[in-house]
Amino acid sequence: MSTLTSVSGFPRIGQNRELKKIIEGYWKGANDLAAVKATAAELRAKHWKLQQNAGIDLIPSNDFSYFDQLLDTAILLNVIPKRYERLAFENQEDTLFSMARGYQGDKGDVTALPMKKWFTTNYHYIVPELESSEGIKLNSTKPFDEFNEAKALGVLTKPVLIGPYTFLKLARGANAQKLEYDKGLVNAVAAVYAEVLGKFNELGAQWLQLDEPYLVLDKEPGDVELFKSLYTKILAAKAGVKVLLNTYFGHIADIYETVNLLGFDGIGLDLNEGREENLEAVSKYGVASETTIFAGVINGRNIWRNNYATSLGLVDAIKQVTANVAVSTASSLLHVPFSTEGETGIPAEDLKHFAFAVEKLDELKEVAVLADATEDEKKASAALAANQALFDGTRVAADPAVAERVAGLTADDFVRQPAREERQKLQREALGLPLLPTTTIGSFPQSKEVRAERAKLRKGEITKEAYDEFIKAQIDACIKHQEEIGLDVLVHGEFERNDMVEYFGQNLNGFLFTKNAWVQSYGTRCVKPPIVWGDVSRAKPITVEWSAYAQSRTEHVMKGMLTGPVTILNWSWPREDITHEEQTKQLALAIRDEVLDLEAAGIKVIQIDEAALREKLPLRKSDWHVKYLDWAVPAFRLVHSAVKPTTQIHTHMCYSEFNDIIRDIDAMDADVISFEASRGDLVVLDAIHDAHFETEAGPGVYDIHSPRIPSEQEIEDRIYEILKKMNVEKVWINPDCGLKTRGNAETWPSLEHLVAAAKAVRAKL
Ligand code: GLN
Ligand code: ZN
């Protein structure tokens, strides 16, 4: 039998973001739900057919979602908090959207469920909230409907679900409490999965894929037992359908022995991330005779061509242990763009090095064919020869000046003087700010008009001068508005930027850009990361003119706004021929030049966003420092170490899940940090308190991802919660990040409430 090919999941937003557009249209009232459903069905059909035509054997279904697959899983299990159910929508889709985005209207007023990053990706999932295990039951026909839909189109799919272990590990109780995995809960959840398995058996499915990425994390006491008891129950219900236990983003060496004994028909292993450990576990514990190893060889998280020789070597390594090997994508392809087709802006010479989702399908098929080929057939294979040619020789032009500068760095370049406490005192005097100073994270709503003007500039329909005048007018209006509502530290609004990473990439040497390589970030939000293609350096000042202009228009302190090196790298497609550490150092030097130029231009407060620093923290604790923080934190210090003591350096981070690395965040040696907090719980405040955190901090006081407007009282309450844990002298008041994605209609009233709340609290101090 020839080697089976399996795709873990496929991007669902659409080649031209069709799903985004139709859903956002629905939210705005421009089209109805029927139109959303029609587009969704078209996209699913197209994606299934693409995979079928590429010769993929196990094509996923139920990898589609209107918002997020973990939210779908919660709804499938009827894990829907009462406050959303009480809104009593007619359609399950509206309930889903209210959980994902909050709701404010004639049916009621509820905030959204928290959102968190999906492992080490920039994809965000909705955190399920489980009020009690009593209501758990099979509550949706979505997986079955999609299976039947594909079947009617002539595609027998492999349904995909997030598994019960990962679901339970990511879910929270009411008030963000940790769940107790008691017997009632475990049985209830296992029973639903068993029922699902039974239904798919009736429907004629051959494989069911259960994704358990949480298995690649360190185990807490009880985890292995939890996993075992869930799956013992589920697998007991197994009839004809084969069950593939799929893992990704790391290795499962610490539980492989248990998994192997449970009797799965397939075990999916990531052979990119966690390669050595996974291979070692397989050879140490063997593979049960009825089990097929799904070798995850096609990277689901990069955009580079697969190296066939490497993949074939990995398949061979598994074949030393078992003959039952299938080849698979290492993770879902959700995290890569759709296709390189149409990327005419990138020279063909460069583009041939890239493989997005569609191209990865062909790679998967070719690897499977080659895995079955004899040595002679391989020698004669044009596909293998063409692939080999891509990896022979260097493909990236090095810049010796960059290498030299990096090599010349000394320990002093990473240390800012004087000590922070002294700086903070000097800054307080120099800046003359009140207690609880108010500010925002940088961007303001990017209206249609702003985006239209940028498009016109790109197409050459307006001159650069006309565009600059337009942006200046936007900045003027934004400053005026901020002054009117009484914010303390102003921002220029980031109107000139399409995106906080792409904008910098475009102004640095060493990057390539795509037209349409969008990747889903959360819900309908997509990002288009640039590609690091060569050594990085700054060609000329990037933001200085804009910040200086903005400062010239106000008496208030104007905050300069930059993106930090770790974030630029994490939100780009990095090179694979040199280390991330090396690339980050190059970026840090480029941004350091920009910081010093801003300072020289009279900017007294400079924010260097490290929005994505937390995101790439390795999943295993033992890797945290050696594989990441030991170079990521110094890279940030390198960026700002040469500024004057009175220049205030801010940083910003998305998501406040850094209780465990709070000291590392402090070690970045920024003067102030703002972070996104309003959708998460505030345990980070305990960590700040306990660690004697020195950096001044602004935990976001309201959620900007939701269209609802917080009341002044709500924000005041929030501030008091913060003051319970933090010294008032260290507290800043700001919203969460990303105002760019909101409309003016909700932004300004919300900020008015924020300023009023800060003033009210100040008055009572
Ligand atoms: N300065 C950016 C903004 O305000 C930060 C965005 C982010 O945190 N992702 O939009
Ligand atoms: Zn952020």
UniProtKB/TrEMBL annotation:
An example of a Pfam family matching this protein is Meth_synt_2
Give me the residues that bind Zn(2+) 1, please: H652, C654, E676, C737
Designated name of the protein: 5-methyltetrahydropteroyltriglutamate--homocysteine methyltransferase
Q: Which InterPro entries match?
A: Cbl-indep_Met_Synth_N, Cobalamin-indep_Met_synthase, Met_Synth_C/arc, UROD/MetE-like_sf
Q: Does the keyword Amino-acid biosynthesis apply?
A: yes
**HAMAP family cross-referenced by the UniProt entry:** Meth_synth (MF_00172)
Q: Which domain of life is it from?
A: Bacteria
Annotated residues for binding of L-methionine: I441, G442, S443, E494, D609
Stretches assigned to the Cobalamin-independent methionine synthase MetE N-terminal domain: 5-322
Give, as in the UniProt entry, the pathway in which the protein acts. Answer: Amino-acid biosynthesis; L-methionine biosynthesis via de novo pathway; L-methionine from L-homocysteine (MetE route): step 1/1
Q: Which gene encodes it?
A: metE
Enzyme class, first EC level, given as a word: transferase
Q: What is its EC number?
A: 2.1.1.14
Which residues are listed for Zn(2+) binding in this entry?
A: H652, C654, E676, C737
GO annotations under biological process? Answer: methionine biosynthetic process; methylation
Q: What does this protein do?
A: Catalyzes the transfer of a methyl group from 5-methyltetrahydrofolate to homocysteine resulting in methionine formation.
| Family from the record | Belongs to the vitamin-B12 independent methionine synthase family.
UniProt binding sites for L-homocysteine: I441, G442, S443, E494, D609
Select a single GO molecular function from the record's annotations and give it: zinc ion binding
Q: Which reaction does it catalyse?
A: 5-methyltetrahydropteroyltri-L-glutamate + L-homocysteine = tetrahydropteroyltri-L-glutamate + L-methionine
